[in-house]
Design a protein that fits this description.
This protein has 20 helices and 25 strands. With 614 residues, the chain is α/β, with parallel strands linked by helices. The strands form four sheets. The chain has an eight-stranded antiparallel β-sheet, covered by helices on one side. A seven-stranded antiparallel β-sheet has the order 5-6-7-8-12-13-14. The chain binds 5-amino-5-deoxy-1-O-phosphono-D-mannitol. 5-amino-5-deoxy-1-O-phosphono-D-mannitol (M6R) binds next to helix 10 and helix 17.
Length: 614
């Protein structure tokens, strides 16, 4: 949520900042802005409502020279998207410019104090309050910028990643974070700042991840210095990035989402690589091996996540209960953190997150750790906050996911959860050897089976045309396919803005069946599993009420072909691995419907990729 970029060095800052904003635009895209100090030490702020392209248009006849600057792309929290509410915000004196990701919760109290002291405001944002507060401290304490920021942050309640620059001081950026990510890129005589590493990788692979309540003092001619807000000096730990630039480009696809859907055969191979042995007879996850006893003795597994990651967690519930015979509860992190849950020391808490930065998931982890539970992270973004705040974990290794709608991260999460369940079951002896071996073997076949589904892209695109103008959709599935139905509905609603609901198929009779008429498309996942016959009965009930059924079936299922209005065939697999296949046509269907409707697929309205505020 909100993207931050900063640069100080020997190159012109503006092109670097704009390129960085484009890379971060997936984090928020309702307005954008830059602040630059030129060679005469003048500080200028340019900002525009809309996308980064609108900012570029606005700035094209302005003075954008200078080798130091900060920039921001916004996802509105306080105040509507507008030029005034866009960042950077000036202090009243226009001596300081600040960008911010997060929420200042006590902004109203600070603002009242500032108003009493003669400050006026141009925007409705909490961020403007923060920059004015820093300016106020700067003036009353007669200190330098670093100390003003440090004092101010001790008085602030909330979450922040900030960067501040000062008129007349072209050699310094001050940056700080608490509960919102911030990375410092360390180049040769130049430094970068960003919400994640994607704007940095082009210039350097050396980064410093700031921790909560740390302030970075980035001076043009010195190594970065890190202090805590309570003034403890820290030794910066420089890490090497493993990302490469091509992962951040669309690579010939019309959208990142389509590219990411098509990457899945490869991303799942990467996810399994080094974990499933070459012979396909064993699964090893170092995060589990190192804490084997904890998993063997776990009384319960609690899975916490949000959105798509929560759907992956629901599949995890089926997997852990079936393979490991450990009771599982799956919780929305946002509910878990506020409902005084019972957490025991012999619980294992698994936090699932693509970004590793989701505010609710981070808060739920903190709560679980305080209660003494062992917390395991399943994350995609290396070095993000969740992996750094958990006891152990596994990365999903599917590379940067840029499209706001999660696709490849979902299947990689499910793959990691499958490998976890297999590894724990082996340790506990809860899975017959034969089943263990054939599940691993079949897991290795999944990437080629996904290829086969992807080859039907044109057919799915054609099918999508029939449903472009539907107002509502229902998705149905049972057992392992129930979370897939939820995920299919979420994909459709977030990128096409069509109302869609997912249900366990048997729940139809308890209410939703009232919605069915000849205008209602129903996507039914009806692959061969233990309750296949029951799903067939559910489809019959829908057809008896004139509903229009799109069935996801196994290849050659002639009886459902006759029953359904439309069908998409997918290869047969083991029931427990079915979500890895059945989710693919649903991703493609949602994608094509959204494209037909001319939606901004990669940046759907009101959404942001990384939800760093609650
Ligand atoms: O980064 P996380 O996996 O923690 O994000 C959780 C949700 O915000 C995310 O899955 C969201 O629902 C996606 N837009 C779904 O496509």
């Amino acid at each position: 949520m909100c993207g931050i970029v900063g640069y100080i060095g020997f190159r012109e800052a503006y092109p670097i900042l704009i390129k960085g904003l484009r890379r971060l635009e997936y984090r928020g895209y309702d307005s954008a802005g830059v602040a630059i100090i030129n060679n005469e030490n003048q500080l200028s702020v340019y900002k525009a409502k809309g996308k980064v392209a609108d900012l570029e248009e606005y700035s094209k006849d302005k003075d954008i020279s200078g080798t130091i600057g900060i920039a921001h792309t916004r996802w509105a929290t306080h105040g509507e998207p507008s030029n005034a509410n866009a960042h950077p915000h000036y202090s009243q004196s226009e001596n300081l410019a600040l960008i911010h990701n997060g929420i200042i919760e006590n902004y109203a109290v600070l603002k009242a104090e500032l108003l009493k002291n003669g400050y006026t405001f141009q925007s409705s944002t909490d961020t403007e309050v923060l920059v004015q507060w820093i300016d106020y401290i700067y003036n009353i304490h007669k200190c330098d910028l670093f100390h003003a920021v440090q004092i101010a942050l001790n008085q602030v309640v909330g979450a922040y990643a900030i960067a501040v620059i000062e008129k007349g001081n072209p050699d310094q950026i001050i940056a700080a974070r608490k509960s919102s990510p911030l990375v410092v890129g360390v180049g040769e005589n130049e430094y970068f700042l960003a919400s994640d590493a994607s704007p940095i990788i082009e210039y350097t692979n050396k980064v410093i991840y700031l921790d909560d309540e740390e302030i970075a003092v980035i001076n043009r001619h010195e190594d970065p210095k890190i202090y805590t807000i309570s003034n403890i000096k820290k030794t910066p730990e420089i890490k090497e990035l493993e990302m490469n630039l091509s992962q951040l480009e669309r690579g010939g696809y019309d959208h990142f989402m389509l590219k990411e859907i098509f990457e899945q055969p490869e991303t799942l191979k990467n996810c399994m690589s080094g974990r499933v042995n070459i012979e396909g007879t064993n699964v090893t996850l170092s995060g589990i091996i190192d804490h084997k006893e904890k998993f063997i003795n776990a009384r319960r597994i609690l899975i916490i996540a949000c959105g798509t990651s929560w759907h992956a967690g629901l599949i995890g519930e089926y997997l852990f209960e079936e393979f490991c015979r450990i009771p599982v509860e799956v919780e929305y992190a946002s509910e878990f953190r506020y409902r005084n849950p019972v957490i025991c020391a012999d619980d294992i808490v698994i936090a699932i997150s693509q970004s590793g930065e989701t505010a609710d998931s981070l808060a739920a982890i903190e709560l679980a750790r305080k209660a003494g539970a062992f917390v395991y992270g399943v994350c995609n973004v290396v070095g993000s906050s969740i992996p750094r705040n958990t006891d152990s974990g596994s990365y999903t290794h599917c590379g940067p996911e840029i499209g706001v709608a999660s696709t490849k991260a979902f299947t990689a999460q499910v793959t990691v959860l499958t490998m976890m369940a297999l590894a724990i079951a082996k340790e506990k002896g809860t899975m017959p050897e034969e089943n263990y071996l054939c599940t691993i073997k079949e897991l290795q076949n999944i990437p080629s089976k996904i290829e086969k589904i992807l080859s039907q892209n044109d057919k799915i695109k054609e099918l999508s045309l029939i449903f472009t103008y539907a107002q509502n959709f229902i998705y149905l599935g049972r057992g392992y396919s129930y979370p897939v139905a939820l995920e299919g509905a979420l994909k459709l609603k977030e990128i096409s803005y069509i109302h869609a609901e997912g249900y366990p198929a048997a729940e139809m009779k308890h209410g939703p069946i009232a919605l069915i008429d000849n205008e209602m498309p129903i996507v039914a996942i009806a692959t061969h599993n233990t309750i296949y016959e029951k799903v067939v009965s559910n489809i019959q009930e829908i057809k008896a009420r004139n509903g229009r059924v799109i069935a996801i079936i196994n290849e050659g299922d002639e009886s459902i072909k006759e029953l359904a209005d439309h069908y998409i065939e997918i290869p047969e697999t083991k029931e427990c691995l079915d979500p890895l296949l059945s989710s693919i046509p649903l991703q493609l269907l949602a994608y094509h419907i959204a494209v037909n409707k001319n939606r901004d697929v990669d940046m759907p309205r009101n959404l942001a990729k990384s939800v760093t505020v609650e």
